[in-house]
Amino acid sequence: MRKSLPLLSALLITGFVSAQEVIKLEKTQITATRVERAELDIPAGIETVTKEEIEMERQYNISEVLESLPGVQATTKNGGYDVRLIIRGGGLKAPYAVREINILLDGVPITDPDGLSRLDFIDPQLLEQIDIVKGPNSTLYGANSAGGVVNFITINPFKFQGFKVRAGYGNYGTYMYRLLYGGNDGKGLFYNTSVSYRKSDSWREWNRFESFQTTTKLGWLIDDSSSLETTISFTKSDLQLPGSLDKEEFEEDPTQQTSSPWRKSGRYSRIFFWSNKYTNEISENLTLKGTVYLQRWTHYHPVFGRVNDGGSYVGGIDAQIELKHKLFGKDSLLITGIQGRYDHYNSKRYTYQLCKLINGDIDYCSNATADNQIEYVLTDNRDLLYDDQKNRNYSLGIFAQETIKPSKKTIVDLGIRVDTVKFDIEKVSYFDLEYVYNRTYRYYGPYYIKYTTPVYENASKTWNYISPRVGVVYKWTPDLSTYATISTGFQTPQDSELLVNPDLDASNTVNYEAGLKAAGDRFYLSSAVYFMVTENEIVRTYTAEGDRLYLNAGKTHKKGFELDAKFKVLRGVFIGGSYTYYDFKYDTFVYTDDDGVVHDYSGNKMHYIPDYMYSLYTVGKLPAGFKFKLEVNTWGSYYADDANTEKYDDYKNITNLMIGYEKGEKFEISLDVRNLFDKKYASQYLKTDWGYNIYPAPPRTYMLRASYKF
């Protein structure tokens, strides 16, 4: 006789337990260990954002949910789906999208084999939970998890029943809508389907955003021990990119678009996502899980002198076995599996079609010469073929983790993984983009040069890595635990980085961490102290002409402390906050630029990493149905460059407010105001040898939203 509940009963119990029935403030997550486990039993620095916490936000941009978490820098440079995400320094060098952090959607990787993640996959209005694992976790997730793992979990087909509508309206022509319907046939087939729409005219010039997303999920309870879940989604997302400002422009008028020649940048994407997950509890002690997925994305991406028109087919498998057994007479759990992934990427880049030239004439950019430089583009239409690139990237990993309980109070995780990652890149270039400094106009005037014959480039590289991990938890009481862990991770270069510098090697990180966690019916506390050493850190710098240059920086040391606390002061009312301390430095970082100048940044602090961050908040749901949240976020000063010549110190006391009313699960209305006091500050303030790179943060914005469940 099996001791576990049938799968249907378990799903229904999970789906309909109310917040009032939860005694402890402790949370559970599956991502950190690949099996569901309470936070106090996990030997790692983690954050779990629950459904209740997500619904306290407007759910328009993912950064709204992540920005107050310790160890996490989440900002938006352009609004819409754009998020710059950095976890414990991981993702720092990414000029766009997300790097060094493995992003999952319902457990399915949406990070490319070369480590790039695009968050236009994610529909914020469908989020039910976000699991975050901070620090390297290549043992369970392979390459490009050096900064951590984030799993965006959306509405489960087994849990939602009924029909729900949501609508929101905000300033600057901002709208959001969602329709969600779910049900079952009474014979084990569950389903939900959603349609959502977001749009904003934005507070900046050339920054319109529009996104349409539809998702259908099917869940089939085959029998009491097995289930199949299928997800099919389509995303159409268009975002104009206004670009960065220099220092004078930021002070004068942060709403203007960039003065760069490339003033019509944008990203217009189309994404198809399909996955199948199969779970079979073969016996009380043996469970099999398998996932097969396929993604097809395309984008039209005019940016930085070229119009990128390309896309990729990405497919993969994930098979996992969970075996409960005895080891040395003690209860143990073995998790082992294999992950494989293939990326078939094709991209053609073109010159911009029409340009304004310095002499005032309108002509094709391809006709511009050194004496007839491009002042700025007038359109984002493409013209002549600039280059043609094909990537064939592969990754394969085999992992195993043994969880042992030597005593009633001790949990030990021992894990190891072997990975192979291979890049095959081919590129044919027909034009070169040159910059010549024009003193009259005070900028590097660009122009296209057509090669006499095409230029061929190839890069092929394979990395083989072994990633071990050990973690120990000691539970002093059911409400209090301490942990210690040593974890590892490695980060491959991106394809574009490898073409710029074929000698780039993968970086590898070792993390030493200890922490304390506590949770009761009136309090929650999580703290961590860590020390990370990264060899061959991949950093981005610039040549004197402003071209990107990627280098292995030698070694970096990252030391930090994180604290997250929450206390119940009244029924349904909590106060809380988070604090982060950073001390991230280059141990060795010396390079010689194209002009023969030696740059030595050894001992310097890493740019854009503040000395500290903190968040304070009060949040409540009152018995009468009223709810509120008041939050204040602050960053300490950070260096604007790796040379440590200038600091930025204006990211202070950014205040957000939400007030609302809800009646059970039927009706909800709320007013959300972000940057309540309309503070002028930069979400990114960087300095290079050729100027400033400043992205202004949004001014005060508001959103009035309401929902009703039939």
Percentage beta strand: over 45%
Report the radius of gyration as a whole number of Å: 25 Å
What is the global morphology?
A: globular
Output the number of helix runs.
Answer: 6
Please bin the fraction of helical residues. Answer: under 10%
Largest sheet features = 22 strands, antiparallel, barrel
N-to-C span: 41 Å
Q: Which regions contain 5 or more consecutive residues with pLDDT less than 50?
A: 1-23, 438-443
Q: Which class of secondary structure composition applies to the elements?
A: mainly beta
Question: What is the count of β-strands?
Answer: 42
Q: Write down the overall mean pLDDT.
A: 90
Q: What would a concise description of this structure say?
A:
This protein has 710 residues and is mainly beta. The strands form 9 sheets. The chain has a 22-stranded antiparallel β-barrel. β13 (209-223) and β14 form a beta hairpin.
Describe what this molecule looks like in 3D.
Helix content is 5%, strand content 61%. It is mostly beta strands and 710 residues long. The strands form nine sheets. The protein has a 22-stranded antiparallel β-barrel. Strands 3-8-9-6-7 form a five-stranded mixed sheet. Mean pLDDT is 90; it is low at 1-23 and 438-443. It is globular and about 75 Å long. The longest helix has 10 residues, at 7-16.
